[in-house]
Amino acid sequence: MKYSILEDPRYKHIAEPKSILFQIFSFIFDLYANTVLTFYTPVKVIGRENIPKDQPFIFVSNHNSHMDIAILAYATRMGYEKFGFLAAKDYWFDNNFRRIFFKNLINLIPISRKQNPESLDLEDTMTLSKAFMGLGNNIIIFPEGSRGEPGKMQRFRKGAVKFSMGLDVPILPAAIIGADKAWPKGEKWMQSVPITVKILPKVDPPKTEELSKTAYNKALSKLTKELETKITNQVKELEETTSPE
Questions:
Q1: Interval 23-63: pLDDT, tens
Q2: Parallel, antiparallel or unpaired: strands 195-199 and 171-177
Q3: Domain locations in the chain?
Q4: Taking burial as the number of CB atoms within 10 A of a residue's CB, which of 25, 92, 151, 179 is the most buried?
C-alpha cells in the first residue's frame, strides 16, 4: 500500500477539523487582535469586496512587522482559525514539544528548508496544503520570505506563485502600510499608529497541465514579478495618499 503523508501521525491533524482547544484559543486570539486592531492600532481596510467568497486562496502581502499575520486575518473578518502558514519542518515539527504544543495554537504546514533523508518533498507539502484548504481554509505566504527593514521592500521569491499554480488556487494580494511603524522588526512593544491594508483583486494562476516546463518556468517568474510590482506600487500609492500635507 502506497504511503500517504496524510497518514503520518506528525501531520495528519493538518487535514482534520480543529480541536476544541484550538477553537478556544482562536476565539481568545481573535478577541485580543480585534480589540488591538480596532482601538490601539486602528486598521482601515480597503477592498474587502475582493475577497473570494466561494474558494480558498493564498493571501500575500508585503512583510515588515510582527503584526502582519493578525492584520491580514483581521482584514478578512474570517478569523485566525481559517489561516495556515508554511513553517520549517526541522524547527516546528522535528521537535516533539513544539509540534504537540503548537498544533493547538496555530495552523502550521511543514516545508523542508534543508535537504536530508528526513526532508519532505515539495509534493508532500502541497498535499498537506491541499487537504488543509479542502476544509475551507486559506494560506498566508509572505513572498519576501522574512520581515525586512521598516519601510523597505525585499525582492519577492517564487514560493507563493508556485503554490498557487500547484494547488490551482488564486492569490489574493494585499498592501499594508503603518505596521512597520506600529511594531517593526526588532522592537518589543507596539506603538499606537494607524494602519491601512488594501486588498487587491485576486490573481488566478494558469493551468499548469497546459504548460511545458519552459513555459511553466516563464509563467512562474512573470507572475512573481507582476505580484511584486503590483504590491510595491500599491504600497507607494497608499503612503502618498495617507501622508500628512
A1: 999 999 999 999 999 999 999 999 999 999 989 999 999 99
A2: antiparallel
A3: 10-238
A4: 179
